[in-house]
């Protein structure tokens, strides 16, 4: 029997530094509140001074004061996650997000075809994995594809878009591949993909957010289309630009 994890994630890109304490800590459906159910660890990544800082914990976020502290930072790029474990034990190495070089990644869902990923991941990227999750294996697969194009150290651009679209298409079009909601960011751009799990987005006041579950009931939220992949970035004049790379 395959178990399907129902982790929760929030990713945000903002034109100005801000804290997301309401979304992550205070709102009725904040990640902290959702961690009562999704209790197998948490992680918060914030992009500051051209690099990612990562805070993680294995206690449930609602029981760990370090989670509140991590969410108090002001920055323009966030990825946060609370885990309900299905693949991999409850341990620090299996908490999301995962960092490799300039890239930060988090996933929601369960991937069935891990052999497919293993066969298409370089020994170097496979050796970087610290944990045992399907999520980190999928991240290694994506990075292998970027390596093959000489793009893993490059900022988000059209060539990265094409490599990512092809990697996602090749994997997710396999029958029964599994659920692959993910976010991937270099701190200046944010990729968002949905397959098999709920995902909503909102954009207002120079802030773009993708969330597994809206933290409020207002009309700013809209469902993100299944099988869609977009890139959101901060453009000229500190405005947000959104580009659809793969439509449903």
Structural notes for this entry:
With 248 residues, the protein is of the alpha+beta class. It has a single domain (8-246), classed as Glutamine Phosphoribosylpyrophosphate, subunit 1, domain 1 (4-Layer Sandwich). Helix content is 24%, strand content 32%. It is built from seven helices and 13 strands.
Strand order of the largest sheet: 3-2-4-1-10-9-11
Share of residues in strands: 25-35%
- Low-pLDDT regions: 1-5
Number of domains as seen in the coordinates = 1
How large is the count of helical segments?
Answer: 7
CATH architect. name = 4-Layer Sandwich
H-E string: EHHEEHEEEHHHHEEEEEEE
Give the fraction of residues assigned to helices.
10-25%
Q: How is the CATH topology named?
A: Glutamine Phosphoribosylpyrophosphate, subunit 1, domain 1
Distance between the termini: 28 Å
Please tell me the overall pLDDT: 93
Largest sheet: 7 strands, antiparallel
What structural category characterises the helix and strand content?
alpha+beta
Quick overview:
The protein is α+β, with helices and mostly antiparallel strands. It has one domain (8-246): Glutamine Phosphoribosylpyrophosphate, subunit 1, domain 1 (4-Layer Sandwich). It is 24% helix and 32% strand.
């Amino acid at each position: 029997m395959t178990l399907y994890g129902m982790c929760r994630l929030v990713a945000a890109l903002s034109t100005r530094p801000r804290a997301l304490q309401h979304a992550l800590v205070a709102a009725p459906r904040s990640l902290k509140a959702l961690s009562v159910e999704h209790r197998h660890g948490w992680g918060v990544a914030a992009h500051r001074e051209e690099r990612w800082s990562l805070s993680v914990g294995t206690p449930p976020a609602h029981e760990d004061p370090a989670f509140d502290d991590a969410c108090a930072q002001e920055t323009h790029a966030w990825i946060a996650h609370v885990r309900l474990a299905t693949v991999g034990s409850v341990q620090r190495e299996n908490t999301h997000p995962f960092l490799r070089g300039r890239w930060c990644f988090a996933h929601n869902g369960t991937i069935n075809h891990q052999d497919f990923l293993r066969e298409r991941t370089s020994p170097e990227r496979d050796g970087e994995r610290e944990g045992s999750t399907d999520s980190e294996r999928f991240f290694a697969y994506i990075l292998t594809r970027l390596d093959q194009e000489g793009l893993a150290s490059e900022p988000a651009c059209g060539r990265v878009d094409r490599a990512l679209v092809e990697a996602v298409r090749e994997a997710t079009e396999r029958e029964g591949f599994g659920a692959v909601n993910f976010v991937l960011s270099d701190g200046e751009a944010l990729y968002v993909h949905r397959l098999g799990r709920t995902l909503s987005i909102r954009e207002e006041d120079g802030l773009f957010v993708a969330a597994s579950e809206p933290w409020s009931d207002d009309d700013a939220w809209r469902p993100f289309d299944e099988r869609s992949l977009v890139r959101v970035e901060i453009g000229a004049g500190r405005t947000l630009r959104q580009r659809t790379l793969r439509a449903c």
